[in-house]
Specification:
The protein is α/β, with parallel strands linked by helices. Helix 1 links the parallel strand 3 and strand 4. The termini are close together. The strands form two sheets. A seven-stranded mixed β-sheet has the order 6-5-4-3-2-1-14. It has six helices and 14 strands.
């Protein structure tokens, strides 16, 4: 399985069997238009990810940098075949009404498990200002990936992760009801994945953080923590 960080909380996965999975794409500059200069995007969007074909689209919660209608308005209509759109209750009805079509809109609330082609998905609790927010556990190609989504540290997460994790993608920006680097490191050490990658620190001037702080907190751990570059796939 290959993973690509597409900025903010967005990720793109491609399995050996060809399944193409996208989580929370933010590929516009909508936040700046809505909220002003402090939300100007710092990472240029790669237009290729607005045109590619998908099998699964996951939207973890209702906030505008995760359900970005400017991105979705371009991405969903270009899909040549129906796709599976997984979303919790706070998002599901909205996207189902806005995009209609023959897509498979799946209500992806806490503890829901869905298998689609060669990949399995489990939604897990996220402690966020959207009470329906989820994290995602993705299993494919003998790898298990945990994407925290936007969340604070919560012991409910530890109870929800009921299997060994190979790669953990974690929020670290410490604002907007999200873990800071210290709490993200605590959670990573408790879950004990083989690898931990900080995301959601990069996009906005006043709402970012230094990922090196997370790496420093992880130095005394057996977990291999490292940084990813935007739009550069890695093999998991």
């Amino acid at each position: 399985m290959k993973a690509t960080w597409i900025g903010q909380g967005g990720l793109f996965f491609e399995t050996a069997g060809g399944s193409r999975i996208m989580i929370d794409p933010y590929l516009s500059n909508r936040m700046a238009r809505l909220r002003g200069a402090a939300w100007e995007r710092l990472v240029p969007a790669d237009e290729r990810y607005l045109k590619g074909q998908l099998d699964v689209l996951i939207l973890t919660h209702i906030h505008d940098d995760h359900v970005d209608t400017e991105t979705l308005d371009r991405l969903i209509p270009v899909q040549k075949n129906p796709i599976a759109i997984l979303a919790p209750q706070s998002v599901w009805a909205f996207v189902r009404e806005r995009y209609t079509g023959a897509h498979n809109y799946i209500l992806f609330d806490h503890e829901t498990e869905v298998t689609l082609k060669d990949a399995a998905f489990c939604s897990v609790y996220a402690a966020h200002s959207d009470e329906h927010a989820v994290g995602v556990v993705l299993t494919a190609d003998a790898r298990t990936v945990y994407v925290t989504g936007d969340t604070l540290y919560s012991r409910r997460i530890l109870r929800a992760i009921d299997r060994p994790v190979d790669y953990m993608f974690t929020v670290i920006n410490g604002a907007g009801n999200n873990m800071n680097a210290s709490d993200a490191a605590r959670l990573a050490k408790a879950i004990a994945p083989q690898h931990a990658i900080p995301i959601h620190w990069d996009m906005f001037r006043d709402f970012g953080s230094d990922p090196e702080e997370f790496l420093c907190y992880m130095q005394d751990s057996a977990v291999h923590a490292f940084l990813m570059e935007h739009f550069c796939p890695i093999t998991l």
